[in-house]
């Protein structure tokens, strides 16, 4: 399953495991390899960079153990395509067989054991891509960042997701230099699908009264006044609560402050305008239209959420 992908992106084939490990350390991510099997082991690695994603297919050809100290500012989607891979965490242990997948979070250490016949797909996803997907879907980011649960997913339970992963790998194999702007859509699709398929710490939209009703009211209010300078006090009055109570609601329900929520909502709308070319003659004009008067801080906040400068979004749209 999916072992045919990246056929045109072979970087190591039928070599010793140390050769594959050296390439991974130099180009993909730091780790330490320990050989557990005996005899002649032949390893292979295919790797491609596509739509700001790092795509690889790896096989060590024998039983090995891999220690990774830190995933840095990236998430890893790891899919076992044959054999078995076991994750050894401090407090638990997870084993994935062929057809199963797991999401790894940034700054998360990993201690993996590959079976002799294990083969895996690994997708490196920059933190900024998933942050942008959260904002685009109106999902506020928790204070401690987006974190996926350590939960194994069976790919046969989500054929659409499996086909999307396969499509991303196939496009990476055939990508041409002039399709950079179109390739970004694949990263967006994958990020949105990951948020829908893998359990994480994002709050879900629910119908009802109380805090959820207040948050829905605030979202509608902000969308209607998206280019106005809306204050926290204004939102508190809207919900008939004190400013302190409003901060408590936001802290409890979505893990960020009302002020940051206002900024994220504005950036989300502005980002959509730039992607669609709506009223976007230049970035400065759009930023000022949304009330971002400090252009340096605006560009920095935009880049943290969407992984690129607003000028780059506008240039790609054009």
Automatic annotation (TrEMBL):
Protein keywords: Activator, DNA-binding, Transcription, Transcription regulation
Domain HTH araC/xylS-type span(s) in chain numbering: 216-316
InterPro entries found in the cross-reference section: AraC-bd_2 (IPR035418), AraC_XylS_family_regulators (IPR050204), Homeodomain-like_sf (IPR009057), HTH-like (IPR037923), HTH_AraC (IPR018060), HTH_AraC-typ_CS (IPR018062)
Organism of provenance: Marinobacterium rhizophilum
Name of the featured protein: AraC family transcriptional regulator
Keyword Transcription regulation: yes
Taxonomic superkingdom: Bacteria
Signal peptide (residue range): none
SUPFAM superfamilies, per the entry: Homeodomain-like (SSF46689), Regulatory protein AraC (SSF51215)
Higher taxonomy: Bacteria, Pseudomonadati, Pseudomonadota, Gammaproteobacteria, Oceanospirillales
């Amino acid at each position: 399953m999916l072992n045919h992908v990246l056929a045109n992106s072979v970087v190591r084939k039928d070599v010793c495991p140390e050769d594959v490990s050296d390439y991974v350390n130099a180009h993909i991510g730091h780790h330490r390899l320990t050989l557990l099997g005996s005899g002649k082991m032949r390893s292979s690695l295919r790797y491609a960079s596509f739509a700001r994603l790092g795509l690889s297919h790896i096989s060590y050809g024998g039983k090995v153990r891999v220690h990774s100290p830190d995933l840095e500012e990236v998430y890893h989607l790891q899919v076992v395509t044959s054999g078995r891979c076991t994750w050894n965490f401090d407090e638990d242990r997870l084993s994935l067989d062929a057809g199963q997948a797991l999401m790894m979070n940034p700054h998360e250490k990993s201690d993996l054991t590959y079976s002799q016949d294990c083969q895996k797909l690994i997708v490196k996803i920059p933190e900024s891509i998933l942050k942008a997907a959260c904002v685009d879907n109106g999902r506020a980011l928790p204070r401690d960042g987006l974190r996926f649960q350590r939960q194994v997913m069976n790919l046969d339970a989500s054929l659409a997701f499996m086909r999307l992963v396969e499509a991303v790998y196939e496009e990476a194999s055939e990508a041409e230099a002039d399709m950079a702007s179109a390739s970004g859509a694949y990263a967006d699709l994958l990020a949105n699908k990951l948020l829908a398929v893998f359990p994480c710490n994002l709050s879900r939209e629910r119908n009802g009264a109380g805090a959820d009703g207040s948050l829905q009211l605030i979202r509608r209010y902000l969308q209607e006044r998206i280019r106005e300078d809306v204050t926290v006090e204004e939102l508190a009055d809207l919900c008939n609560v004190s400013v302190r109570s409003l901060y408590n609601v936001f802290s409890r329900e979505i893990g960020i402050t009302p002020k940051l929520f206002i900024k994220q909502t504005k950036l989300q709308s502005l980002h959509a305008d730039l992607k669609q070319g709506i009223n976007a003659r230049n970035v400065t004009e759009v930023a000022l239209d949304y009330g971002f008067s400090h252009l340096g801080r605006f560009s920095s906040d935009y880049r943290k959420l969407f992984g690129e400068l607003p000028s780059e979004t506008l240039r790609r749209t054009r």
